[in-house]
Specification:
The chain has four helices and five strands. The chain is an alpha+beta fold. The chain is globular.
């Protein structure tokens, strides 16, 4: 889905966009592959023989940047978000993804993810987790 120049400009001028531009270290489109404990996805396996098995998770982190206190994770979405409860539905839809991305970043960098955001290009809103 294409994002027009107006929406990109609105993002750059937003408080989150300004923070990204001011950061000394910015990382974009970062692919990762990590192994998660199987019990992280399936807690019911904790008493089984599979408890020590791992599950491979792959993804691409849209953006993260560093500030003195830690890492700020930003994911972008171009989905249409319906007025009303659309923000809550969208927040719920991507919560698991953003949590796993934060976990992956902490494993890869050894640094703490202190803030997690999804920026919605459709309406310029920021979802904070």
């Amino acid at each position: 889905q294409r994002t027009d120049i107006f929406r990109i400009e609105r993002f750059i001028k937003s408080p989150l966009g300004k923070r990204i531009l001011a950061a000394e270290h910015i990382f974009k489109e970062v692919p990762f592959t990590i192994e998660l404990p199987s019990t992280m996805l399936y807690p019911e396996l904790s008493d089984s023989i599979c408890a020590k098995d791992g599950i491979i998770l792959q993804g691409i982190i849209d953006c993260y940047f560093e500030e003195p206190k830690g890492i700020i994770l930003v994911d972008y979405k171009t989905d249409y978000v319906a007025p009303g409860d659309g923000l809550d539905i969208t927040r719920d839809r991507y919560k698991t993804q953003i949590d796993y991305y934060a976990y992956a970043l902490e494993q890869i960098t050894g640094k703490k993810v202190i803030e997690k955001y999804i920026y919605l290009f459709w309406n310029g809103q920021v979802l904070e987790y």
